[in-house]
Fold:
Amino acid sequence: MRLYKNIYLVGSGQIGLSFEKDCHVYLIHLNGDLILIDAGFGIETEKIIQNIRADGFDENNLKYLFISHVHADHAGGCRELKKATKCIIVAPEYEAELLEKGSESEIGLDMMKRANIFPKEYVFKHCKVDVVMKHNETIDVGGFKIRLIQVPGHSIGSSCYYLDLGD
Structure:
């Protein structure tokens, strides 16, 4: 679902694009390079890939997957997306270790299961992080700089990514 020029929504449980517990998953097309912001829950990940294709892109051109924080609805799909696309996983400092080996308690999953928000049988699939970013660091993608801005609160390393498209 195209949102703006080269920004697409390819996952969202709220509007039925993908698994019901998925956060919004964004695809950005930058001069031939594709990036995703967040990965969803990790159940029915193929729906996210189908949405990438439906928007006219080849998932094999996915270069980076940027994670905002490591709650299951944002990062649970990392391992499956990396396996399917060979993308580079980027995570904020403080969140990277949680993505690789955080306990259910450390990623808040135990609380979400107790509250019956997430299925009790759900297992978070940890994923190796390829690039760890610190506050204000940038990565060049398709001629554009993507800057990580840490906004702790929702989780210790919660982050936003700033991208100036120049328009």
Q: What stands out?
A: Strands lie at 2-4, 7-11, 25-30, 33-37, 62-66, 88-92, 131-133, 138-141, 144-150, 159-163. DSSP finds five helices and ten strands in the chain.
